[in-house]
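testing teh design pipeline on a random one, pls ignore if ur not involved
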């Protein structure tokens, strides 16, 4: 007897394809244990023991799916024997519902049904594995974020807004792991404003709390911490942070995620001077500093002489 549990769904799908061509009259027996509340261990022990007691059981190919459903491909296995097997299982497991959860298919005649069953199970399994991977990555990212935040200077975090408001001139933080992009943006902005640079997420957070910038241009794709995650941290540190995202990927999901977290805008690469200054000009922090500067008495005297 060959019992297959690893990648059972995909291996069964492959066998169905083969039998549909080479042996279309081959029977495939199906038991939907997934629709019962039976204990997995007891089910498999009882099933294997009873199947093993049947003549020619050594020829059986048993596919145990991730959802507990079982398929049997077995030469010489008759419908009557399968019915007796189900009756025996139902009696020993005290599960009379099994008689309604067992089906017999002829591979060639029911090829589409069997393929759809396999495809549905594979899709569910793939989605489940994807969710598990995403959950694991999310947990790792959450831990990394907490570690980074724990290492930041709490005193500097507490007065970010106060230090930003007290500064007379605007300060712009440019965060990008690509040196060319940092240089291009910095060369443009530095003609009118003070520029600070960071080449990864950890540096970005440190520079943010150290310098309390009025505007942040933040790249989404960075090597250590995803830009969306850095944005989340900045919003935790300073809910009023004014952050504009950079990215060469202009897909809607990227943009919407950034805006949902708290970004004030999005600039696709390659960026232009006008776009950079458009967003700088929209910053309330920058406008307030410019208004205070314009209202200074010495500036008024200078403009009227």
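output:
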């Amino acid at each position: 007897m060959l019992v297959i549990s690893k990648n059972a769904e995909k291996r069964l799908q492959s066998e169905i394809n083969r039998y549909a061509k080479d042996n279309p009259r081959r029977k495939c027996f199906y038991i939907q244990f997934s629709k019962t509340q039976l204990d997995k261990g007891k089910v498999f022990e009882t099933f294997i023991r009873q199947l093993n007691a049947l003549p020619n059981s050594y020829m059986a190919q048993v596919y145990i799916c991730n959802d507990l459903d079982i398929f049997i491909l077995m030469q010489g296995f008759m419908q009557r024997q399968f019915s007796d097997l189900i009756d025996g299982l139902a009696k020993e497991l005290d599960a009379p519902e099994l008689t309604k959860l067992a089906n017999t298919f002829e591979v060639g005649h029911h090829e589409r049904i069997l393929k759809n069953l396999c495809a549905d199970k594979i899709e569910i399994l793939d989605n489940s594995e994807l969710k598990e991977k995403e959950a694991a990555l999310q947990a790792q990212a959450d831990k990394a974020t907490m570690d980074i935040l724990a290492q930041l200077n709490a005193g500097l975090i507490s007065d970010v807004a106060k230090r930003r408001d007290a500064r007379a001139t605007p300060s712009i933080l440019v965060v990008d792991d690509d040196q060319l992009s940092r240089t291009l943006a910095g060369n443009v902005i530095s003609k009118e404003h003070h520029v600070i640079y960071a080449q990864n997420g950890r540096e970005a957070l440190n520079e943010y709390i150290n310098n309390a910038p009025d505007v942040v241009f933040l790249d989404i794709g960075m090597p250590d911490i995803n830009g969306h995650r850095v944005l989340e941290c900045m919003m935790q540190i300073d809910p009023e942070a004014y952050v504009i995202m950079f990215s060469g990927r202009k897909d809607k999901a990227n943009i919407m995620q950034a805006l949902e977290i708290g970004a004030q805008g999005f600039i696709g690469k390659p960026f232009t001077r006008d776009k950079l200054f458009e967003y700088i000009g929209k910053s309330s922090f920058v406008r307030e500093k410019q208004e205070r500067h314009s209202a200074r008495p010495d500036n008024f005297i200078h403009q009227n002489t």
